[in-house]
UniProtKB/TrEMBL annotation:
<dbReference type="InterPro" id="IPR044543">
    <property type="entry name" value="YHJQ-like"/>
</dbReference>
<dbReference type="Pfam" id="PF03860">
    <property type="entry name" value="Csp"/>
</dbReference>
<protein>
    <submittedName>
        <fullName>Four-helix bundle copper-binding protein</fullName>
    </submittedName>
</protein>
<dbReference type="InterPro" id="IPR005560">
    <property type="entry name" value="Csp_YhjQ"/>
</dbReference>
Length: 129
């Protein structure tokens, strides 16, 4: 099952499915969970990972909120969605930059999904009318 398919089945989406927004929602959902997992793994590391944990948790929360708004097709609040997508792209970039400072495999994976998510958020912003 795909979240893109679920979005396309919404009655308000039948006339037009925004593929870029669907891709962003897909990555936002995964990024939220990957950041949460990375934060948890960072807590188990022997070194001080306080800043990485904080950014991963913040990124997870912002991605989660943005994905929820991106899923909603009823009504219209594109200005708010646009702002959230832009904020999310910036947060993902910050989280990726911090994770890239560490040589832990979980941080490398987190940085990768954050970079992908940021790119999809920017593409979604460009796709909104």
């Amino acid at each position: 099952m795909s979240i893109r398919k679920m979005i396309s089945l919404h009655p308000a989406s039948k006339a037009h499915v925004n593929q870029a927004l669907g891709d962003a929602v897909h990555h936002l959902m995964y990024c939220s969970k990957m950041c949460l997992s990375c934060a948890d793994a960072c807590m188990a590391e022997d070194m001080d990972m306080t800043q990485c944990i904080r950014l991963c948790l913040d990124c997870s929360d912002i991605c989660e909120a943005t994905s929820r708004l991106g899923l909603r097709r009823t009504g219209d609040d594109q200005p708010m969605l646009r702002e959230l997508l832009e904020l999310c792209a910036r947060m993902c970039e910050q989280c990726a930059a911090e994770c890239e400072r560490h040589d832990h495999e979980h941080c490398k994976l987190c940085a990768q999904i954050c970079r992908e998510c940021a790119a999809d958020c920017r593409n979604a912003v460009a796709s909104l009318s």
